[in-house]
Structure formats: structure tokens, C-alpha cells
Amino acid sequence: MTGRPGRTGRSGSQAGAGDLLELVRSGRAVTRGALQQATGLSRATVGQRLDRLFRAGWLREGAGGPVDSPLGGRPSITLEFDGSHAVVLAADLDTRHARAAVLSLTGEILAEHAGPLAVEDGPDAVLAELGRWFGELLTKAGHAGEEACGIGLAVPGPVDSETGLVVQPPIMPGWDGYDIRGRLSRAFAEHTGAPAVPVLVDNDANLMAYGEQRTGHPGCTAFVLVKVSTGIGAGVVVDGSIYRGADGGAGDIGHIRVGADALCRCGSYGCLAAVASGGAVARRLAASGVPAASGSDVRDLLAAGHPQAAALAREAGRQVGDVLATVVTLLNPAVLMIAGDLAGTPFLTGLRELLYQRALPRSTAHLEVLTSRLGDRAGLIGAGAMVVEHLYAPERAEERLSQMGV
Ligand SMILES: [Zn+2]
Predict the structure, then answer these.
(1) Shared-domain flag, residues 200 and 123
(2) Distance 357 CA to ligand 1 centre (A)
(3) Which range among 4-13, 140-149, 274-283 shows the weakest confidence by mean pLDDT?
(4) Which UniProt keywords apply (predicted)?
(5) For residue 186, what are the CA distances in angstroms to 77, 131, 146?
(6) Is residue 178 assigned to a domain?
(7) Using one digit for the tens of pLDDT, what is the confidence trace for 162-191?
(8) Do residues 121 and 95 touch, judged by C-beta distance below 8 A?
(9) Distance 253 CA to ligand 1 centre (A)
(10) Helix H segments across 155-287?
(11) Residues 323-376 pLDDT 10s
(12) Alpha-carbon separation of residue 216 from 219, 337, 339, 372 (angstroms)
């Protein structure tokens, strides 16, 4: 799957309705004249292809009123993607809780639910429960199951996005190779009575990075997000597309050995996540008598200004910063965003200390180190966007228009 900035649709007489939709959605051409200019198609052909998009309910005339035409003459009506003709479902699974939502095609959250859900209960139980949540959320948002066009799921493990299978996940027992798409699609159909819809699965840090980059930093061509909660993972967005590596393993920095002797949830000793995650900080607090069992407990303590939690978060930031010096040197990102339970001042202070000390000045000269803007919703927004980009990509859009008979 490719993201918007890097995608080049067909031009000239080959440009179809899907390509015109892409030009409008990306903002590269939003009037009939601009579409003619961008594609070289005649006015009549552009008109015919736009008619298909209007009949499908995918395009509408913009509320902004006429703008000057690039071809001169009368001002032209602007066109825009009609994000209200369908909805998308998204869910973000963490190790012990999950969040799910109904979103518009343009990324607004229409109904949302968060609650306890443990990945260790296994895929069958977890995905059945998500199907139930989706049914309730659609009702709450006032939409029928038939209006949902697809489901996006974020999971806390490495994913082969071509197959939607999680691959040797360190902290998702029973999920390795499980048919997530099929099970979630069936659960959705059971709880809505609607026909099955496409399900897309990706790693949570990837989708958080995608959501944040698209909504807050659309011009950033090299974007890295690091999620520090129960575990630690990173998502990389290059030229508007998620960079997944050869088989979906890119960004899984939580299990790099940093030399300590702490036991990690993956079964190895000395992983970064075993010493510098929210879970690791919670264990250290608990060992010294402060009640904390999880990353979210640490988040609450940090929010309350607990001095020992702040000191441990800063030390965790230093350990993550040491690893990120290599990441930043390799990828030279413009934005390094920190998300998750530990994302706050103490952690960032520690991270900056080590990052700027270890990385070359050249690779950090224009680097912005920021905290998450979308917070707990980043994964949902990214999962929804992944589904929309997949379903409305030029060739897929063309195929769907034909199936709809328009
Ligand atoms: Zn590990």
C-alpha cells in the first residue's frame, strides 16, 4: 500500500475515475479545469468520469464556492471527497485494553469505546468481543452495518501486512499465524447482520505513526514515532507511506539487547522493553513499595508529579535515547514523536540528554522531538486512514465502482 505523497496515478488518456478521485482527495486538482490539466483528458471525458464518482456518492461540490480556473474563463466549482457516504471501523489492541471506533472516511471519530481486553486471552475471544463492540458502536453512531466499508486493526506485534498475519509476536500468545482477518470479518457480520467487509491489520506503532504524520505533519517526508507503554515499538513513515521492512519487522526496537539482566516478556534477558518501558518502570516502583502494576499506573503517577516515578521515567528516557541515537542516525527523520504511557517531560528530558550526546550533530540539527498530538486515538485514526487509503486507491476504487455498477 502506498501513501498519498508518493503515489503517482496514471495520467493522459489512461487516467480513470479512480485517478481523478485521487487527485481530488490529495488536493492536487480540485476543479474540472485542474483535472483536465493534470490528466490531459478532454473536458467531456473528465465530465464522464466525474459522473461515475458523483453517482457513487464519493464526490460532491465543495462548500468553499467557485475558485479561479487554471484554464482561465469563469471561476470553477471546487470538488471534494464526500467522506459521509460510508464509515470505517477501527480498533487498537493494547496488551490489556483496547479502543475501538466508528470513523468517517475523513477521519472524524463518530463513536468510540475503550475497555479492558487482554491479548493473552487469545485471538478467538478477543476478535469476537471486538465484533460485538463494533455492532454497538455502529448503533451508537446511528449507522447500519451495511454502511461500514472496512475494518482497520492495530495490534501490539509485528504484522505481515500483505497477509494480515502477526509474525512471531513476542507478547501475543496464540496469535502467531492466526487468521485475524477472517475471524474479525465473521465477528463483524455476526454482530451487525451485514455482509463481511475487508479487514486490514498492522502494527500499532506503525498505525500511530501513520495517523500522527497524516494529520499533524503531512509535509514531513521522514517521520518516526516511538510508543513507550507496556512495551516499546517504533513506526516509521517515509514519503507518506509506512515503512515496514522486508517482512513487517521494521521498528521493533523494544527487543534490542541493551545489556541489562532484566527478564523481558518475550522470554529473553536485557531487552530495551525490559528496562525502559512503562511496565519496567512500574516494576521498579512496586519493588520500592509504590503501588504500580502497569504502564498506565506509571502514567497516573507521572501526571500527579510523583518524584520517584519522574526520576525513573527520566532514566528510562536516557536508555531509549541511547538506542534512538542509532535510529536517528540511520533514518535522519525530521520529526521524532514519543507516544504512550511514558510520553511526558521527565522521559523526554532523559531521552534528549542521551540522543544529543550520542548522535552526530548533523543528524539532529533539524530534528524535532515531540510528544504525541492525538494521544490514545493515534492508532485508531491511523487504522481508519489505512483502510480508506486502501479502498480508495485508484485501481481499487475503479474496481469497486465497476462492482457497484456505476
Ligand atoms: Zn524482549
Answers:
(1) yes
(2) 26
(3) 4-13
(4) Kinase, Transferase
(5) 43, 8, 14
(6) yes
(7) 899 998 888 888 999 999 999 999 999 999
(8) no
(9) 9
(10) 180-192, 204-216, 272-276, 278-287
(11) 999 999 999 999 999 999 999 999 999 999 999 999 989 889 999 999 999 999
(12) 9, 11, 14, 10
State the pLDDT confidence band at 394, using cuts at 50, 70 and 90.
Answer: very high
Distance 255 CA to ligand 1 centre (A): 4
Do β-strands 335-339 and 97-104 pair in parallel, antiparallel, or remain unpaired? unpaired
The CATH number of the domain where 46 resides is what? 1.10.10.10
| Nearest residue to 27 via CA among 249, 214, 163 | 214
Is the same domain home to 230 and 198? no
Q: Are residues 93 and 18 in the same domain?
A: no
Share of the chain above pLDDT 70, in %: 94
Centre of ligand 1 to C-alpha 232, Å, is: 9
Domain count along the chain: 3
Give every CB contact of residue 154 below 8 A, 6+ residues apart in sequence.
90, 91, 92, 93, 201, 202, 203, 204, 206, 207, 208, 379, 380, 382, 383
Note whether 91 and 98 are within 8 A (CB). Answer: yes
Entry field: residues in the chain: 406
Q: Quick one: 27 and 122 in the same domain?
A: no
CA of 268 to the centre of ligand 1 (A): 5
* Element spanning 235, H or E: strand 232-238
End position of a domain, from candidates 56, 81, 106? 81
pTM across the whole model: 0.92
Domain that holds residue 159: 87-204+379-403
Could you tell me the distance, in angstroms and rounded to a whole number, from the CA of residue 171 to the centre of ligand 1? 9
State the CATH number of the domain containing residue 352.
3.30.420.40
Q: What is the largest CA-CA distance in the chain?
A: 76
Q: Is residue 333 part of a domain?
A: yes
